[in-house]
Amino acid sequence: MAETESKNADPVYDIPKECKAGVVVNEGPDFRVEVQMVPVPEIRPNEVLIKLNATGICHSDIHFMLNDWALPKMSEMGTKCAGHEGAGVIVKVGSDVKTLKTGMRAGFKPIADTCGACELCRTDKECYCSKAVMTGLMCDGSYKQYVVSPERYTTVIPDGVSDFIAGPIMCSASTIYTSIKDSKLEPGDWAVFPGGGGGVGMQGIQLAKAMGLRAIAIDTGADKKKLCLETAGAEVFIDFKDVSDVAAEVVKTCDGIGAHAVFVTAVQSYPSSVSLLGARVGGRVMCIGLPPAGTQRIEVDPNQMCFRKQGVQGTLVSSMADVDKTLDFAKRGLLKPIYTVYPLSKFDEAVQKLRRGEIAGRAVVDFNREE
């Protein structure tokens, strides 16, 4: 992609007719991602065109391609490319765009657009808008190198944050930030992360530490233990394969009482999540991971909820404001790079490894590397 720039003028980019994209083939249990050439989309007057340099790979992408969330299929909505963790540069702006300019860095988020007019859109809950456009399901996502974004809902990436960090912030890091914020924990409180060795959990541990919380990671394996303790900054790592009673170990660690909050990113942990609260008054389970429809349940004793003022709460993805807040943590060096970068030729390999649970931290695809 050629770029020209005159003095005091915005850069002008040569836009190709086609671009590389990771296209889902054979939606369902046997899906795969195949790198294909696809048309570069056209923009409307109020939109910008973003050339992505990197995309994170999220479990939500896998669920969309598996079609196991009881939602319409991607193909029924004309969508070929999953993904919602994109980072790149604006290469074209529509005639009505007022603020964004070519050459500015930008991200592509789980929600591509909202109605902008409802009660939710006028607060910090716009991602729950009934007309929200889910990226990678209702429109092509960040597995495609060139994507379209409305000016008013485009996130600007600050200098000092690499695309490999910024991409995953669009979903995983900002999502866990919103959950931590909504839990209303105070500095010094215990935050427990089942699935702490995964991409969302490991970013959550870093954010929790930055917010003054005491993080406990629950996962298994020497690699994940090292990353959680030495890189992410967890205070304690509990290997669920080495401990006979994980809940008892958590309660013992958390002052002999229990966790102040449990942030569930590993969906198989939902059935046991309440037990990690122990007798902690005001403790709550924060639901983040989204399991296949109908596969996981949390059994709640109303008496326990009442006598201990405990609760269960869910959050989806982040508002624009929370994404900006999370980017600021990264700009200050508080979100360390815990990712594995894959070239385009390894797109499907990266997706399938994540599906099998074989990736510690986050997987990121580099659009500028073929091999």
UniProtKB/TrEMBL annotation:
Keywords for this protein: Metal-binding, NAD, Oxidoreductase, Zinc
One matching Pfam family: ADH_zinc_N
PROSITE patterns: ADH_ZINC
InterPro entries linked to this entry: ADH-like_C, ADH-like_N, ADH_Zn_CS, ER, GroES-like_sf, NAD(P)-bd_dom_sf
A single GO molecular function term of this UniProt record: zinc ion binding
Listed cofactors: Zn(2+)
Domain (Enoyl reductase (ER)): residue spans on this chain: 28-365
Gene Ontology CC: cytoplasm
PANTHER family registered for this protein in UniProt: ALCOHOL DEHYDROGENASE 1-RELATED, ENOYL REDUCTASE (ER) DOMAIN-CONTAINING PROTEIN
Similarity-based family: Belongs to the zinc-containing alcohol dehydrogenase family.
Name the UniProt record assigns to this protein: Alcohol dehydrogenase 1
Organism expressing this protein natively: Lophiostoma macrostomum CBS 122681
Taxonomic classification: Eukaryota, Fungi, Dikarya, Ascomycota, Pezizomycotina
